[in-house]
Amino acid sequence: MLMEGLPICxxxxxxxxxxxxxxxxxxxxHELVYVLDGEGRQATDRTSYDVRPGDFYIFPAEVPHxxxxxxxxxxxxxxxxxxxxxxxxxxxxxxxxxxxxxxxxIGRSDHRIDLEPxxxxxxxxxxxxxxxxxxxREKRPxxxxxxxLLISEFLLLLMRSAWWQTHIPEHPASPSPRQLMHExxxxxxxxxxxxxxxxxVLAVCNLSRSHFHSLFRRHTQQTFVGYLNAIRIxxxxxxxAETDRNVNEIASQCGFARPAYFSSMFREQVGMPPRxxxxxxxxxxxxxxxxxxxxxxxxxxxxxxxxx
Length: 308
Prior knowledge:
By secondary structure, the protein is an alpha+beta fold. It has helices at 20-23, 94-107, 119-138, 143-159, 162-167, 177-191, 198-205, 209-220, 224-242, 247-253, 259-270, 274-307; strands at residues 8-14, 30-38, 40-44, 48-51, 56-59, 65-68, 75-82, 112-113.
């Protein structure tokens, strides 16, 4: 699922001590750990924490870390792996995406999230963890949306906790260029269907126009307009495939003020106009349906002879 840009979670027991050099590891995604039960240590290559049930730990991508237990100790951990691009997706509220980026920033120096002093918050967090674990394990219809809502609920809980107020400043100082570009992407993905101007994104990033364009192109390998149009065209492709709305209506819903410009950008990105794209989809669907019908009839005609 991480390959699809989606998080995964699981419960893992840690039971015995082993060589630290073998257990310390890194990966390209972020890791959120919740201690369900037991005792032991969560460690990085620089520091070590004595764990207790109810502890949260955040290990951003590429931070070396591991879980350890001494003889007679054990830990039962809930682990959530989150791809770096997950919170840049369009379904996230801008404030939540920004909160996640702030959490990752603080997690590069302080890995423990201590909610224990606030008993109600701590119990609420455990309930969210248990619900997330159940959704991932059972994978019932709509579980991805359910997990998205639960992750949102967890972030809101953190943002309103005493820990957040003491660890996350309301106006973080000197964010890195990468963080600024993540904020810009989060804003664009949350507002792609509206009229977005460069000035709107500049207000989010607090950068000069020339500096923003330079950073954005270096970070995305695209211009601001090209990046925005690419997102809008992807959504337009989905609407052309899944609805019977006319092209002008889809253009408007995807943030294009002029249908002619929409058609031009669509042709440039997809290689054909919107109407032709839809016709190709319909023809492909008809062909697949015909093949299914032919295959079904062939099977039914063969079955009696096989029975004889």
